[in-house]
Design a protein that fits this description.
elongated; single chain
Length: 209
Amino acid sequence: MKEYRTVAQEGEQEFIEKRSRFIGYAAPVESEEEALRLLGERRALHREASHNVWAYVLRDGQIRRYSDDGEPQGTAGIPVLDVLLKGELVDVLVVVTRYFGGTLLGAGGLVRAYSHTAKLAVDAAGIRCMTPCTVFRLQMDYSWYGKITYFLPEFRTVVLDTQFAEAVTMVLRIPTQDCPDFLKKLREASFGSIVPEKIEENYAFVEEN
């Protein structure tokens, strides 16, 4: 598992070029089905538009898809896709809607307009780096709880759940690269009495301390 870049949320931005209105939309997606669903929603929202050009890139299967949607070949879908590829972005859908303003832009003008609008949409959505993480379950005596929680921030830890019963049970998410140091610190701090259970590995946005 390695880090990857995607967009943080949905984003939308507009751009006018020679009276043509370009509307860029970017969104995070986790599957081709989700990308196609959102694409369908954008088409329905802008059913009166001249074109709904789109591109998406997915980690799963390393899928890359795009469409010029009636614009001259190579002037729309590929420029939008290039914005994603040059930004090293995955799990992202971008749709650029065009309402024709009556003036032809030419091939070069179309490439610049679609590329610029796609970049505006991505910037509006924001970039997020997703980090490989490991989720652990810790069970401990109450006497250890304060000591353990004190050093958790050192390892960019997120506490997903805490239950207080006969013992304290915590579920933690830690960046995988921090795990060796965390496990060493946990072992030393508890004198080996707390044995973490690894639950799963996943990706998450990790804020720096």
